[in-house]
Design brief:
The chain has 316 residues and is α+β, with helices and mostly antiparallel strands. It contains eleven helices and eleven strands. It has helices at residues 3-6, 113-124, 138-152, 160-176, 185-205, 212-219, 223-234, 238-256, 261-267, 273-284, 288-297; strands at residues 15-16, 27-34, 40-46, 49-63, 66-71, 75-78, 84-88, 94-101, 127-128, 132-133, 179-180. Strands 1, 2, 3, 4, 5, 6, 7, 8 and 10 form a nine-stranded mixed β-sheet that branches. The protein has a two-stranded antiparallel ribbon with strand order 9-11. Helix 3 packs antiparallel against helix 4.
């Protein structure tokens, strides 16, 4: 039984259930680097609001059926339960900070007027906020001082009251600039539920042969409808998604284990060694053996979610 590959991705790798902050204060700030800490974050979702601030470089963000390029000074907003991914843009590196928090940090009582008038509609689609806030926009300039405060004081003790104050200020600015819509959230919600379902299906079966027919049956739709739905929601064909998912799994296993390359490839669903090698070189620009060597040589770097001794500050 393929225990190595099968157990490599827990379910929370896609519906992320990791506790960010603490139960009593669900808030945290991470410093990230793509591809330094991780080469990419595949399609996933979580219960927190996520604010990404790009410090330097660029990366691609997939959210709400669209692809965005985030660059130095830009901000990205990911609402709770939104399926999204972040990956390298061309050959660029992205240095960034991510702020994650649950709405209950600001409104513990869901009957609260603020929760009912803003946070709930934001979650259900009655209010739309932009995914990307460009560096030179007025909204970016208004929000930036509060994000700078949160990032620069991320390790400051006794800063809890100011964190809430800054977050309320950010959310107030977003509310002022939000669009109130009559969007067909029910239809969109069903599509996202199907996408989430198929993402978990791939996670559970990527080590085996997977056909479009099986995936469509899993979603209870026709093959043609499934292929169009998946491309519209994920931005690529289902076959491409499965191949890239397997390759990214191989890349992680090459970096983190001493298993033989041929064994890892087979355990991740590649039945042909020659096809695997060609696909890997096409995606990563080098053979698997050199990739492993280069990642091992660079393993002295900082893991995602941890801070190096010196950290960049955000200009206000």
């Amino acid at each position: 039984m393929n225990l190595l590959a099968q157990n490599y991705y827990p379910d929370e790798a896609f519906h992320e259930t990791k506790l960010h902050g603490s139960i009593g204060f669900p808030y945290t700030v991470y410093r990230g680097n793509i591809p330094g800490y991780m080469r990419s974050y595949p399609l996933h979702w979580h219960d927190e609001m996520e604010i990404v601030f790009a410090v330097k470089g660029s990366a691609s963000i997939r959210a709400e059926n669209r692809e965005y390029v985030i660059a130095g000074g830009d901000m990205a907003l990911i609402t709770p339960q939104t399926v999204h991914a972040i990956s390298r843009h061309n050959t660029d590196t992205l240095e960034y900070f991510t702020i994650l928090f649950k709405f209950k940090l600001l409104c513990p009582d869901e009957k609260d007027e603020i929760f009912q008038s803003f946070f709930l509609p934001l979650q259900t689609g009655g209010i739309n906020i932009p995914v990307l806030i460009p560096k030179d926009s007025g909204l970016n300039r208004e929000i930036r001082p509060y994000l700078a405060d949160l990032i620069e004081n991320r390790k400051t003790a006794g800063f809890s009251m100011k964190i809430k104050s800054d977050l309320f200020a950010v959310m107030h600015l977003l509310y002022k600039n939000a669009e109130h819509t009559e969007s067909n959230r029910i239809s969109a919600g069903k599509s996202y539920d199907r996408l989430k379902k198929i993402i978990l299906f791939v996670r559970q079966n990527y080590m085996n042969a997977i056909t479009v027919r099986e995936a469509a049956e899993h979603c209870a739709v026709s093959e043609s409808h499934f292929m169009k739905l998946f491309r519209d929601m994920a931005g690529c064909s289902f076959i491409s998604y499965v191949k890239n998912f397997r390759l990214e799994t191989v890349a992680r296993l090459l970096s983190e284990t001493d298993r033989k390359i041929t064994g890892i490839a087979a355990e991740c669903g590649f039945s042909s060694a020659s096809y695997f090698t060609r696909a890997f070189e096409q995606k990563y620009g080098c053979p698997p053996s050199r990739f492993r060597e280069e990642r091992r040589n660079a393993s002295g770097g900082t893991a995602e979610g941890q801070e190096p001794a010196s950290s960049k500050q955000v200009s206000r």
